[in-house]
Amino acid sequence: MATILWYNLLLDGNYGSKTKAALQHLLADHGWYTRECDGSFGYHSQLALQKWLKYDAAGYFTGYPNTDKHAYYTGRLDGNAGSMTWEAFRDGLQDYLWAVNATNKTVGKVYPNPYPHGGDASTQFVAQMQRFLNTNRR
Q1: 13 within 8 A of 26, measured Cβ to Cβ
Q2: Among residues of the chain, what percentage have pLDDT more than 70?
Q3: Reported pTM
Q4: Which end of the chain is more exposed for a tag (fewer CB within 10 A), N or C?
């Protein structure tokens, strides 16, 4: 597949190839993903997401790069982004929203169902993810 550029995402809650490619670009920008950003969120993308959430994400979600915050993801690095991985991402988004709200840029709330594969709460979670990705685009 060809590389998909990191465009400003439409906040539509669609966990499609553009959102997945944007997440790959974010992971690549921080050194966790070294493959093509093609929007196919397979094993290597999921493993990079888990590593980022485990070792590096706290500073990006909170705005404090050298934070002592615990890892968001505490599970096995198995390249299978299941509910534990997405719950970790949701927790990071929640911290991100608190940090943004502290600077009077209200974004909203993170919905309780973080798994990006269907349902109203899932669509709202993906829209929050898209907003985060747009804000952190380089």
Answers
A1: no
A2: 76
A3: 0.84
A4: C
For residue range 57-83, list pLDDT tens digits in order: 877 776 655 555 568 899 999 999 998
Listed by start position, the domains of the chain span 17-135
Q: How far is CA 14 from the centre of its chain?
A: 14
C-alpha neighbours within 13 Å on the C-beta side of residue 112: 0
Residue type, 47: L
Q: Residue 64 and residue 49: Cα distance in Å, rounded?
A: 19
